[in-house]
Amino acid sequence: MDLYQELILEHYKRPVRAGLREPFEAEVRHVNPTCGDEVTLRVHVAGRGGDAVVEDVSYDAMGCSISVASASILAEEITGGSVTHARETYEAMHSMLTSKGEDPGDEEKIGDGVALAGVAKYPARIKCALLSWMAFSDALHQAEGAQQ
Amino acid sequence: MTAAPFPDEELARIRADFPILTRTVRGGHPLVYLDSGATSHKPRQVLDAERGFYERTNAAVHRGAHRLSEEGTDAYEASRDTIARFIGGRASEVVFTRNATEAINLVAYAFSNAAAGGGGGHGDRFGLGPGDEVLVTEMEHHANLIPWQEACRRTGATLRWVPVAEDGRLDLTDLDGLLTERTKVFAFTHVSNVLGTLNPVTELVARAHAVGALVVLDACQSVPHLPVDVGGLGVDFLAFSGHKMFGPLGIGVLWGRPELLDEMPVFLTGGSMIETVTMERATYAPVPQKFEAGVPVAAQAVGLAAACDYITDLGLDRVHAHEQALTERLLAGLATRSWVRVLGPADLRERGGAVAFTVDGVHAHDVGQVLDDRGVAVRVGHHCAWPLHRALKAQASTRASFAAYNTPGEVDVLLDALDRVPAMFGLEVHA
User: Fold this and answer.
1) Sequential pLDDT tens for chain A (148 residues)
2) What pairs with residue B24 in β-bridges?
3) C-alpha closest to that of A94 among A54, A135, A61
4) Across the interface, which of B363, B380, B389 has its CB nearest the CB of A65?
5) Would you call B426 and A36 a contact, using CB atoms and an 8 Å cutoff?
6) Residue B220 is a catalytic residue
7) Domains and CATH numbers, chain A
8) Cα-based angle B200, B205, B211 (whole degrees, multiple of 5)
9) pTM of the model
């Protein structure tokens, strides 16, 4: 089964940067109603405009290996990078996961995220992988609103 | 003499009636379908009956005077009679809906429509307002919970519920405090769709009737699997769906005591359900037509009647015995795996043919995916019973549910496939 890459199981067993931390500008909670998976995610952004940096992504994820691993990969790839980079990574992940397998993912852009490429072929699991990314996108939007 | 499970030869004949069971999935694995609690497959006899209706009789029934309309109406009403007899009722007590969810909503709306002065009924028993209570249980499928939450919201009544004990049975310790003269309706499930728990219906009905409450029984998981007799159960309303009992999608049944159906205000309105209509107002047809607005689901009714005949031919007592044997085999297999926790009663006599379980440290989605990789189809998640999962401290569960066509060998395939889970997710397994 190409769904459960070793890298996914590693992230599932030892999620990177797990737990909720301060400071943060926005906290969101997203739920997958079909299975009850939940993620609470906080974003801490420093700086403004082109200089804005995602200082921290902290989260509490309850769910299947795909959703937990995806949150872990997100925190690893996004933390410490620019907000611009975070948006590009989000777009690249979203494109890969919703491509039905057409877009294999670009490791340059999404790093460990490519391990989730197999999810695109299992329609029932796409939402598991997308959950924390949707939460992050929502939180980032709110954090930027809070800065205005 | 108690009924026996189907022997191999008979089981092979039954399976041959279900075309879909010959297909393979996920790289050539034979389909092992253990999700009949969600929806069952359909035998040729049902598919042929529905197709036959469309090919020879198709008409909008209860309207028109042409030949096809007459035959279609006859087929529709004959189906109602077959389905009514299947549950020990009369045709005039059976209302066809789109599914069981709509059947329960029909009753829930009768309460709030009566409170709002809705037409078509005069029953005081359906008044609901502040100070009144609706009682449900913590093990309900969302279909028998949300309609009552909303009915309470619309009327100002209070929703209360019977809790579930750790062993997956209803905790009736405080039933006297919950079921009182304030209770207007007690809605509960016959068999839990998650745990398979068989609830003590006649006892609960007696307690409800003693305080003057009406009883609505969700029979979705019982009517397909064990003999159900509305008279013997003593309930006031009973709802089930066609597609979980070898019948077509798109049809559900509400059985109700005739005097109550007569008193109930109308629900969905429009064509078919009227007696006379002017620009200002309408009067309504007698039961059951007054609850069947729009062109009736005739082909589905014909299909569902064929499903009832099919089950009757198999023998519901034998279907039940067969599913009990499969449940016993699965419970025994799961009991030897220390990393599996079975939800629900340990005693087979208090269970229907559904087994939900959790694997320590592995989410149900992942368990289901590993099983699916070997062609085993199970349900994963909260199975539309989120509060029940919360009560049992399980975020989600994996559920195997049986029908007459399942084999002991399929239970073994499930158990074998399940054994891949611990290694895959790095669990430390202690024998």
Assistant:
1) 778 889 999 999 999 999 999 999 999 999 988 777 899 999 999 988 878 999 999 999 999 999 999 999 999 999 999 999 999 999 999 999 999 888 999 998 999 999 999 999 898 899 999 999 999 999 999 998 877 6
2) B30
3) A135
4) B363
5) no
6) no
7) 3-146 (3.90.1010.10)
8) 135
9) 0.94
